[in-house]
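Researcher: Structure for this, please.
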Amino acid sequence: MSSLEMNKIGAAVLTAGVIAMTAGFIAEQLFHKAPLAEHAFMVEGVGETQTASVAETPSLDPVTPLLAAADLAAGEKAFKKCSACHTVDKGGKDKVGPNLWGVVMAAHASREFGYSDVMSDMSGETWSYEALNEFLASPKKYAPGTKMSFGGLKKVQDRANIIAYLRNQSDNPAPLPE
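Model: Predicted structure, token format:
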């Protein structure tokens, strides 16, 4: 193929690109999109308002009855999902998320870490078994605006196993509820 033919092909591709861009610009100017009054398709967990009453929110299965019989090995295995962002070693370094050594029954945002504003505002609250259950079920519902992008664990037994595992990652494990 000669260089003249290559130039023709290149000019044709560039011309087609300029025509497509110009057509798109003209179409945007001619047709104005009005925003929808409501979403045509709702994605669960996106765009929900936080004004829902407690009665509208489905309750979670309680985790405390499952803790005594929770499987620590299964909790350690399930924690591997968390280990992409968290460490659980005593004195371990922070990753994207804070180190979770001794987190059970500790205060929210009690470590030196760059927490999201919503988590910092919860600093007076405690990571009780049920608080961890709610958070692990859906971090975005528990703390709207959290930086944590984890979608949550649907099965209460998985949450119980992880909480039992985290409970043992402490110098003084919190007592199990009666």
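Researcher: Any notable elements?
Model: DSSP finds seven helices and no strands in the chain. Residues 50-56 have pLDDT under 50 and may be disordered.
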